[in-house]
Amino acid sequence: MSWFKRTKQSLRKTPKKTVPDGLWRKCDYCSEILYAKELEKKLWTCSKCGYHFLISTEQYIDIICDSGSFQEMHRGLRSGDPLGFKDLKRYGDRLKEYSKKTGKEEAVVTGFAKIGGRDVVLAVLDFSFMGGSMGSVVGEKVSRVIEDATEHRRPLIIVSRSGGARMQESIFSLMQMAKTSAMLAKMSDERVPYISILTNPTTGGVTASFASLGDVIIAEPKALIGFAGPRVIQQTIRQDLPEGFQRSEFLLEHGMIDMVVPRGNLRRTLEQLLEFLAAGLASTAAEAMKDEEQSPAVS
Amino acid sequence: MDDRNRTGNPGTPSRQYLDFEKPIFDLEAKIAELKQVASVQNISVDEEVQRLNEKAKKLRHEIYSKLTAWQQVQLARHPMRPYTLDYIKEMSSEFVELHGDRAFADDPAVVGGFLMVDDKRVMVIGHQKGRNTKENLYRNFGMPHPEGYRKALRLMKLAEKFRIPVVTLIDTPGAYPGIGAEERGQFEAIARNLREMSRLMVPILSIVIGEGGSGGALALGVGDRILMLEHAIYSVISPEGCAAILWKDQEKVKDAAEALKLTSKHLQDLGIIDRVISEPGGGAHRDPKAMAAELRRIIYEELNYLAHLDPETLIERRRKKYQAIGFYKEDSP
Ligand SMILES: [Zn+2]
Predict the structure, then answer these.
(1) Which of 67-96 (A) contact B at CB < 8 A?
(2) B53 with B186, same domain?
(3) pTM tops 0.90, yes or no
(4) How many Å separate Cα B49 from the centre of its chain?
(5) Given an 8 Å threshold on Cβ–Cβ distance, is A77 in contact with B328?
(6) Among residues A8, A71, B87, B137, which is most buried (max CB within 10 A)?
(7) To the nearest 5 percent, what fractions of chain A are helix, strand and coil?
(8) Residue B150 falls inside a structural domain
(9) Beta partners for residue A157, in sequence order
């Protein structure tokens, strides 16, 4: 797994040079050296500081969904290149490279799943594919699961980790922010619940659209969450940023999110929330209509 | 700004021109001089003036018909370009400015209020840049804080309540990357505007009049119709930011501007912009009065058209308009 390869660099600083590659990993946050097996047991969180490592989409789905319940939907969507964009590389070539490297079609995986036996609709952004950036495909797939959730009257859960809008699609990626937000407006009007989970890092156009529009917003501990990146801010204001700036705990303190939940408690928290948010949902739209028809007409 | 030149008193912005505008300025100066000499010496130079005017017209056409993307960016940011309040003042004497987000502050980078456009009551909201250093410090160069978006939304909701259509004028380098802006949740403020604008029960007409800079622009830009002035620009990131990130070289702004397809012509071809509004020869700053008159005429015309749609149809159409935006390939199942 490519995920473990990053240990190489961190091992250079440790005396245990003979440790086989992949057995140990350094915490990105506190630099503690962690035993990989132990790390996995702790759902890839640092036992010393609680930092949550970036994990794959599949790992994330395993952590929050009932075992084997995930059923992928909306496969087969791939980015076009609307602008014929070329920087140092062609956008089309970049897409092919990422697809080959990650085995993914695009930067989001969507589908149906169960959490605590309850049907939900799920989207998980994939940071390994172009930094989880939102272009037309991410916007379209997120919009489609919003439609799915609305139509089937199932709670929507979106796990975000993204560098923001994808520059190579310029106006198209910008407009995906409006598109996904407009779709959420309709879903919200239909009283279908949406839980947004923010993980490290979630920035730019994703935070400034669907990720910030959850009925309930949960963040993983110490996740970087913001609109402008810290480096851009630093360059603009030319001063040091406060300790913990743009981290989950900072957002909680400023009233921007509902809670900071460690990975180990995430499924339990989702089950609890769904108990309240999804209790009034009929299982299908048809059923909902039937319910309405059956309710006695009061004159 | 390297490409910007000034003549005369540097304090008066009325003489500022861009590099590629210089030949036109020189010619116009020559015409003015000729007229001056003629009036003093009481001789007729009509023929010569007419010849030079023709030449100037041709020159303008030549220069402006093949502007590069980067030149368009410079025009969109021209220091003489009319800003939101300039258009508002030109369009009507009946403007009641409203202030504040009712939560934290009044953001001077966003202005708004009731405007009478001929016989139509309108809620106009726009980004506001400053004309000089002092004004720009006050207006934060037209870069909103969260309070700007929240003020805008408050005014839109006010308009909705009293069934008044909304016109937004977009002209911002983008959201302000500062500590306070993040602390007070600019991401949330932008996202909320996108969602609420998509279901606002009155017509929304969005017009990019200058710089359409990313999320800070879009936060006022969700509308039933999206219009753009001929020399305005609209993109997900500034050419400078894009060059720094993708080219890893800030000098590559011209390449980035080209690649981003940010001109009105490109964006109309891509199906994002519904209508491009022609500017006076040489750009809006060469004749702000004429530009404002044209803008007023088009706002009136567009609102007339949107007034025929009932609220439900309006919202349905608006959502579908955005739902359809995207460019991707799909394998047949
Ligand atoms: Zn740690």
Answers:
(1) 75-83, 85-88
(2) no
(3) yes
(4) 34
(5) yes
(6) B87
(7) 40, 20, 40
(8) yes
(9) A122, A195
